[in-house]
């Protein structure tokens, strides 16, 4: 009965909160994907939803946010940095830093880069331009 609700017709909204059309677009953006089975789409959406819930619950439980009863970005970025399970999210959820501190880091990288070969620095600049 549950799988029947996953078929087109709007019934899937009861079982999954994320928009299936958007998830289909994201899945199709991969060059290896030619067609997407409806069940695979639904299961991907549900797995994503459960993962986000798990990340939020874990971050809330282990959070260092000063506000009570609130999940903060800092809680999420701390989880991404500290918890091995979520470390793959570290680039997506970076720790917030002051602009002045970031500029100092850039200056330090630039100085360190000058010590290294010029070729390495040139490649990094190209990569940043593509992103």
UniProtKB/TrEMBL annotation:
Q: Where is this region: Disordered?
A: 109-131
The biased composition feature labelled Acidic residues covers 115-131
Q: Which keywords does this Swiss-Prot/TrEMBL entry list?
A: Acetylation, Coiled coil, DNA-binding, Nucleotidyltransferase, Nucleus, Phosphoprotein, Transferase
A GO BP entry is: chromatin remodeling
Any one GO molecular function term: protein heterodimerization activity
Check the record and name the InterPro entries matching this protein: CBFA_NFYB_domain (IPR003958), Histone-fold (IPR009072), Transcr_DNA_Rep_Reg (IPR050568)
The cellular component terms of Gene Ontology attached to this UniProt record, alphabetical and capped at eight, are:
CHRAC
Superkingdom to which the source organism belongs: Eukaryota
Pfam families membership: CBFD_NFYB_HMF
Cellular location of this protein?
Answer: Nucleus
Endpoints of the signal sequence: none
Give residue ranges for domain Transcription factor CBF/NF-Y/archaeal histone. Answer: 17-78
The function of this protein is: Forms a complex with DNA polymerase epsilon subunit POLE3 and binds naked DNA, which is then incorporated into chromatin, aided by the nucleosome remodeling activity of ISWI/SNF2H and ACF1. Does not enhance nucleosome sliding activity of the ACF-5 ISWI chromatin remodeling complex.
Q: Self-association or partners: how does it assemble?
A: Heterodimer with POLE3; binds to DNA. Component of the CHRAC ISWI chromatin remodeling complex at least composed of SMARCA5/SNF2H, BAZ1A/ACF1, CHRAC1 and POLE3; the complex preferentially binds DNA through the CHRAC1-POLE3 heterodimer and possesses ATP-dependent nucleosome-remodeling activity. Within the complex, the heterodimer with POLE3 interacts with SMARCA5/SNF2H; the interaction is direct and enhances nucleosome sliding activity by the SMARCA5/SNF2H and BAZ1A/ACF1 interaction. Within the complex, the heterodimer with POLE3 interacts with BAZ1A/ACF1; the interactions are direct.
What's the protein here called? Chromatin accessibility complex protein 1
Which source organism?
A: Elachura formosa (spotted wren-babbler)
